[in-house]
Amino acid sequence: MSPVLEATLTQEMLERFGARAAGYDRENRFFTEDFEDLRAAKYLLLPVPVEFGGAGLSLAEVCREQRRLAYYAPATALAVNMHIYWLGVAADLWRRGDTSLEWVLREAAAGEIFAAGHAESGNDVPLLLSTAKAERVKGGYRFTGRKHFGSLTPVWTRFGLHAMDTSDPNRPKIVHAFMPRDTPGYTIKETWDVLGMRATRSEDTVLENAFVPDRYVARVVSAGAAGIDPFVLGILAWGLLGFGNIYYGLGRRALDESIRTVKGKSSLALSRSMAYHPETQHAIAEMILELEAIEPHLERIATDWSNGVDHGAEWPAKIFAAKYRAVEGSWRVVDQALDVAGGFGIFRPAGLERLFRDARLGRIHPANSFLTHEVVAKTALGISLDEQPRWG
Q: Among 29, 81, 161, 353, whose Cα sits 20 to 30 Å from the Cα of 389?
């Protein structure tokens, strides 16, 4: 690790975040103290180029740091990922000569907090389609719709959202924009009482003709897969690979806790600890084998992205596959960890009960299993991602 990164996210900070995690979960409370510590350490600026006051880290480098943070405080890492990925997208575009989102980098350096508002009921193809409405008006767009899982609700100052403009029914467009916090026409509904990742406090945001000026409109692209331009693809890369590494870090923590537990766990049937039980050893080996396959997959895809490898139309499938493998594998690891812990593991002081609930949410994050399999298969078969099945 470089001295800069070590100073940004010190071991003492990580231990402090880990000590707070259970309390945030128990109280269903936003991770305020963690957030302020990370802001003060300039962790929230990791992807911002050094020219704008950030650390200038690539996607692969940021993923490694998020993995470290998630090992101690997965909900904290997940929440800040929603801010960091916007900055990563803007930074990548800027480095490629596209300065259209340079303002995002400058505003982030000035302290603005960017959130993600993409989830919608009835829309299982996030980013590419939308149930929200975007209406073109003089000087910008008006947005109407309901967004679920609005990340960083207590602290965001720029709400990243997307909606569909159907003014031309034959050529619908997706409008991507950032809504300032002081915009009239939206309401935050406190709905966040959920299974896991509770510290994120990802409340619903209801938009009612909220006006966003053109200067905060990031992109207007075609609806569906035809709209996957470098901006949209960048969101997929930074968002989903970030998710994958966060859940991988959580899985690593579950493994280490399991090893620690079995070394101190006794049985009337054994003269030594449960670490010497053949089935315990088998379970630990299964967990390790799962995690050993996840890390290189995540590393390869994030490094390819950071190095500008041209995978062309295969990029979405590669990103989705890496995220899918990470969250599915990490879930299996945490589930196995609960078996290894036995009855003790279901009690909150053990810590595994929280990791179990947090890990389950990884499989819900976009892209879910259905969409992942569809994208991977269609890409391999040379079928358009927008192709719909025909029955009968």
A: 161
Residue span(s) of the chain under CATH 1.10.540.10 come to 3-109
For 3-109, give the CATH class. mainly alpha
C-alpha to C-alpha distances, 268 to 75, 262, 265, 274, 332, nearest whole angstrom: 38, 14, 11, 10, 28
* Separation between Cα atoms, residue 306 and residue 64, nearest integer Å: 13
Residues of the chain with CATH 2.40.110.10: 114-223
DSSP state of 387: P
The Cβ of residue 264 has, within 10 Å, a number of other Cβ atoms equal to 9
Instruction: Collect all residues with Cβ–Cβ distance below 8 Å to 134 and sequence separation of at least 6.
Output: 141, 142, 143, 163, 164, 165, 173, 174, 175, 177
* Whole-number Å distance between alpha carbons of 361 and 382: 31
Q: How many beta carbons lie within 10 A of that of residue 6, not counting itself?
A: 10
> What is the spatial distance between Cα 63 and Cα 182, in angstroms, rounded to a whole number?
32
- For residue 4, what are the contacts with CB-CB under 8 A and spacing of at least 6? 55
Q: Which of 307, 306, 323 is nearest to 58 (CA)?
A: 306
- Evaluate whether the domain defined by 114-223 bears CATH number 3.90.226.10: no
Q: Determine the length of the chain.
A: 392
DSSP labels for 141-184?
A: EEEEEEEEEETTTTT-SEEEEEEEE-SSTTS-EEEEEEEETT-S
Mind listing the pLDDT tens digit for each residue in 272-316?
777 888 889 999 999 999 999 999 999 999 999 999 999 999 999
**Among 86, 127, 115, residue whose Cα is nearest residue 375:** 127
The hierarchical CATH code for the domain 228-381 is 1.20.140.10
Q: What percent of the chain has pLDDT over 90?
A: 87
Condensed to tens digits (0 to 9), the pLDDT of residues 201-217 reads 999 999 999 999 999 99
pTM above 0.90, yes or no: yes
Q: Tell me the residue type at 245.
A: N
